[in-house]
């Protein structure tokens, strides 16, 4: 087979890129290791920046988002029983949109199907060959049958455990990593959210987050040891622990119910440089991971897609390599800022096993500074709603 852009990975990055390229008449084939049902079954991010919303609009995939998504003008931060609000609208003029990654992915699949876009599921043994030549190709297997795609470019949108990053030779690739000594235990429950805006909670027992998907679907997280597994936590134990970590006035209002999903995610900061090698471009989690505090993972994947899409347009429409040549530098400049914000917000909100009494005092002083300082709140708001592309 032949195409212009071979896209490895049918998660949000790969699908969004394919759909945007389609709007410009640029052909692609998406290769996905799992089934569509598996991809749609993963519960992940829930907060979208305006930049991602605009890209979805450009891709013609924002209709349901505009109907069903919720604009949030601020968020709450609590420590012990104290709580304050950071006002996004006042400080930036921009809200964020609460709309699940699952829904975004579903909308993108629907659009790809409507457009007759080619997606191969259940692919195995994906190998990228000749990425440093003018004629790259991707080989893979489906049902034991070997296949090959000859293409102009390869977009590596295959997440943290994909093959694309590993294709870049070790003497070219530089990786930066910080692994956090805890995870997030998350549950989804068909209960009304405890508050109409998100609550990020710092407590002596560890971090908690009260989030949501809609009026009757809540998403809650608590910091937990990495050695825990979801089976260690009954629903009752989860709710009890969550209540201990949020202000009493909030805990009193919490409506509990059975969980319909329960999972643990480890926390990691990770960046690989460069994000381009020859005709291979890394996008999203394939190139970088943020700890989830601040909801930057999906949004940072989207800004990569923006830069790559525009670079490829420049190539096909204007016969210019300027956009693809500057892709890595442009994407990384924004990635590092999202990494900084996610690292800062994680450091502010979690309990660390090796935290000294002095470290704890510093954390508390920083939260109180944020509470009382408009400039600090503006800085947080600007980062939370998303830095400009
Ligand atoms: P992915 O969503 O990982 O998609 C990559 C796709 O590539 C997958 O479908 C995978 O099956 C496929 N693939 C992998 N290898 C191959 C291969 N060899 N061949 C073909 N296909 C392959 N972010 C937030 O902002 N908030 C959150 O609450 C949050 N929670 C998360 C929880 C978990 C458990 C994880 C893992 C991530 C979470 N994130 C969260 C991060 C966010 O979901 C990601 O940043 C986002 O999914 C990135 O999209 P992506 O398309 O780049 O990668
Ligand atoms: C959600 C996840 C996050 O990491 C975050 O910062 C906010 C919301 C969520 O899944 O709803």
TrEMBL record:
InterPro entries: FAD-bd, HB_mOase, RIFMO-like. Its EC number is 1.14.13.2. GO terms for biological process: benzoate catabolic process. Keywords: FAD, Flavoprotein, Oxidoreductase. Residues 2-342 form the FAD-binding domain. The lineage of its organism: Bacteria, Pseudomonadati, Pseudomonadota, Alphaproteobacteria, Rhodobacterales. GO terms for molecular function: 4-hydroxybenzoate 3-monooxygenase activity; FAD binding. This is 4-hydroxybenzoate 3-monooxygenase. It comes from the Bacteria. It holds the Pfam family FAD_binding_3.
């Amino acid at each position: 087979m032949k195409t212009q852009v071979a896209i490895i990975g049918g998660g949000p990055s790969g699908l969004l890129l394919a759909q945007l390229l389609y709007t410009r008449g640029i052909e692609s084939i998406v290769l996905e290791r799992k089934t569509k049902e598996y991809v749609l079954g993963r519960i992940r991010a829930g907060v979208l920046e305006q930049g991602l919303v605009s890209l979805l609009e450009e891709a013609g995939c924002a209709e349901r988002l505009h109907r069903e998504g919720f604009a949030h003008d601020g968020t709450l931060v609590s420590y012990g029983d104290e709580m304050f609000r950071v006002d996004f609208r006042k400080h930036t003029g921009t809200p964020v949109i609460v709309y699940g990654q699952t829904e975004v992915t579903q909308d993108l699949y629907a659009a790809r199907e409507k457009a007759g876009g080619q997606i191969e599921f259940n692919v195995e043994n994906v190998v990228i060959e000749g990425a440093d030549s003018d004629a790259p190709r991707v080989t893979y297997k489906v049902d034991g049958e070997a296949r090959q795609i000859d293409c102009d470019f390869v977009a590596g949108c295959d997440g943290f455990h994909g093959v694309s990053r590993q294709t870049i030779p070790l003497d070219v690739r530089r990786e930066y990593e910080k692994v956090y000594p805890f995870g997030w235990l998350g549950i989804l429950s068909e209960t009304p959210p405890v508050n109409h805006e998100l609550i990020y909670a710092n407590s002596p027992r560890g971090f908690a987050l009260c989030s949501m998907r809609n009026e009757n679907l809540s998403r809650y997280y608590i910091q937990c040891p990495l050695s825990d597994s979801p089976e260690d936590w009954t629903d009752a134990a989860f709710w009890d622990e969550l209540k201990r970590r949020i202000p009493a006035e909030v805990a009193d209002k919490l409506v509990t119910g059975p969980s319909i999903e329960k999972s643990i995610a480890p926390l990691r900061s990770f960046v690989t440089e460069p994000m381009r090698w020859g005709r291979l471009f890394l996008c999203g989690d394939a190139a970088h991971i943020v700890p989830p505090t601040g909801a930057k993972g999906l949004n940072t994947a989207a800004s990569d897609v923006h830069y790559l899409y525009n670079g490829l347009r420049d190539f096909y429409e204007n016969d210019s390599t300027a956009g693809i040549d500057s892709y890595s530098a442009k994407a990384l400049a924004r990635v590092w800022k999202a990494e900084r914000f996610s690292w800062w917000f994680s450091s502010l909100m979690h309990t660390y096993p090796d935290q000294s009494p002095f470290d704890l005092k510093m954390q508390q002083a920083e939260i109180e500074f944020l509470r009382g300082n408009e400039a600090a709140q503006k800085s947080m708001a600007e980062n939370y709603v998303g830095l400009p592309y």
